Amino acid sequence: MKNFFVLIFALMALASKAQVQNMIVYRSDGSTIRCDVETVDSVVFEAVPKWSNRSKEAQNLLTYLEENVGQKILTGTHACVNYNINEAKWVFKHTRKYPAINTFDFIHDIHSSSSGWINYASNTIWQNWANAGGIVSAMWHWNMLTNDSTDWTCTPGSEPKQTSFRPSGIFSPNSDDYKTMIARIDQVAMWLKSTKTAKVPVLWRPLHEAQGNWTEANPGTDWHKAWFWWGADGPEAFVELWRVMYDRMVNYHGLTNLIWIFNAGDSKRWYPGDEYVDIVAYDFYNKNLSEMHWWYDYFHENYPGKLYAISEFGSIPKLSQLWEDGQHWSFLIPWYDYDRTNKTSGDAFNSTDHNNANIDWWNDALEQDCAITRDELPRN
Fold this sequence. Notes:
It is a single chain. The protein is an alpha/beta fold. The chain has two domains: 2-39, no CATH class; 56-376, TIM Barrel (Alpha-Beta Barrel). It has ten helices and 13 strands.
């Protein structure tokens, strides 16, 4: 408030030039700028550009998405488990069109190596997708060691095959848990740096579905209702983990090409904050039109100014019905069907059936003028 009154006084003095020598501008960091009013002709306020902390490529993609609201919706697919475009290939096989977006998953980060069965350091898959005009998306099923130390999981709990790792360690920077989280974040950041170097923007959806079964209407006290360990200690720990990850990836590693997608529930207590989120998304499974419309309205009411998307879905109404209902999501991506697309050379791959979005669903979607496929994306 002090700054406001100082500014008003300075502007009045500037207009009158009466008994005032200097105008002092107080910066938010505590420093000041001192100007001789006799040398100032005018004061102009310049708005901070939207998404100014994003790379040019990320800004361009965000602008494209924003311009499409109410006009177009991007189609997408998820990798079958981890690091492939199998689902996108399945859609192309049966429709002769590739979706606009393909999402990769760092679920096997702990197993990645240059000579192993999976290597996230290899750029070939996502680079080929981007070179063909597609949008790159990524997520992370962040697995921790199971309680019996025989495997890796992201499911919280006390059972042998669950994990007792808790996100509340993020509040203790000197703890081993904190150091473990930072080290794992750093590893994924290193793999993502090649996308920044290649000037490829990435739709980044970390720490998804954190709220789990917990709802604002029936909060309870048992945080083990979380589906993943990053939600096991409630909203405060989750928000802190999100912000630490954001700071580490964006400010420390310089990954300004990431576009941050927050998987929302019905409680804003889990929301990391406007400055940490670009897109608010929801995962719909077995929902009807009215249920989905409730969420669409809820997002507009609670997250004004953000973009809204369907980051996962299975068994929902057709795109034609969603669009006619006025649900103008920025993009929608069905979850993968492992048995259908695990092997692109198998007989199952030839079937048009799918657990989450069969080819009938895709044919309807691609018949709509609003649906964007890979070949329809603008090329830089």
